[in-house]
Amino acid sequence: MTLKHPKDIGSMAELRGQIDQLDHDLIRLLAVRQRHVDRAAQLKPAEGLPARIETRVNAVVDNVRSIAEREGFDAQTAADMWHLMIESMIAREEQAMSQGEQA
Question: What is the pLDDT of residues 49-60, one digit of tens each?
Answer without folding.
Answer: 999 999 999 999
